[in-house]
Amino acid sequence: MRSVFFIIIILLFSAHTFAQTARNARQERRRAQVNEMIKQQEEGVITYKKSFAFGAKLITDGYGVFFELGRATSVKKGLLYQLEISERKSSKEEKQSFYTNTVPFIYGKENFVYPVKLGVQQQVLLGNKSNKNGVAITGNYGGGIAVSLLRPYYVQVQDGNGYRYIKYNSADSVAFLTHQIIGGPGFARGWNEMTITPGVYAKAAVRFDYGTFNELISAIEVGITGEYYAKKIPELAYNKEKEFFFGGYVAIIFGKRK
């Protein structure tokens, strides 16, 4: 009985010692990782194998969000795979509201326009951090495929003694512009009628990464982008339809490197 009790004590002590050793090893690895991060920051070096980031951007004709996966190909170069969803707004849009408790409307708007882009960019290091509080500057350029999702814009109009929702089409185009408009479409209307216009896009940008730790991405990006679609995109009635769109943007980006 004593021998069994003695064996149990030895096993418990061994398990405790093993757990303590493993915990110390993890702490030592983490300490070494932090020391390496500090060393890289002091030297102004950012090295990584892969990264992921989220961003939000203001565009000259709208706004959008994007998700990015990065893969390093060398110390100074990498590839960025991006998926972006945005909403395009014409500079001539103007919200109006004639009645209380109704949704504001945009006179003459034919479609909500949602560009979706999937592409790859080459990222090149232009200037590394001079110290841990410095800013790393990178440039990226590339492109990919784009699709423009068109969701019809409805307005609520007076019709005899009642009202109805209409959109801009061959049957209701006159009423869409001449009837007494009561309100706009709301968020739920038109999603089941979306159409797709395919296209391509290209972009070029400069990114300023000011993150304190090199494993974290905190950056501002400024760039230009161009999109070309297979046919013209109808946005506002009585305005020239375009198949090519060019503009600038500024984005804020947060993410992580590994």
Compact summary:
This protein has helices at residues 2-43, 173-178, and strands at 50-59, 62-72, 77-88, 95-96, 105-106, 111-127, 136-152, 154-159, 162-167, 181-183, 195-209, 216-233, 242-257.
Structure description:
- There is one protein chain.
- By secondary structure, the protein is an alpha+beta fold.
- It folds into two domains: 1-43; 47-257, Porin.
- It is 19% helix and 52% strand.
- The protein has helices at 2-43, 173-178; strands at residues 50-59, 62-72, 77-88, 95-96, 105-106, 111-127, 136-152, 154-159, 162-167, 181-183, 195-209, 216-233, 242-257.
- An eight-stranded antiparallel β-barrel has the order 1-2-3-6-7-11-12-13. It has a three-stranded antiparallel sheet with strand order 9-8-10. A two-stranded antiparallel ribbon has the order 4-5.
- Strand 8 (154-159) and strand 9 form a beta hairpin.
- It is elongated and about 95 Å long.
- The two termini are 53 Å apart.
- The relative contact order is 0.18.
Rough shape? elongated
Q: What is the third-level CATH name, the topology of the largest domain?
A: Porin
Radius of gyration based on Cα positions:
28 Å
**Order of the strands making up the biggest sheet:** 1-2-3-6-7-11-12-13
List keywords for this structure.
258 residues, alpha+beta, Porin, 2 domains, eight-stranded antiparallel barrel, three-stranded antiparallel sheet, 2 helices, 13 strands, elongated
Set down the secondary structure blueprint:
Blueprint: H1 2-43, E1 50-59, E2 62-72, E3 77-88, E4 95-96, E5 105-106, E6 111-127, E7 136-152, E8 154-159, E9 162-167, H2 173-178, E10 181-183, E11 195-209, E12 216-233, E13 242-257
Antiparallel strand pairs: 1-2, 1-13, 2-3, 3-6, 4-5, 6-7, 7-11, 8-9, 8-10, 11-12, 12-13
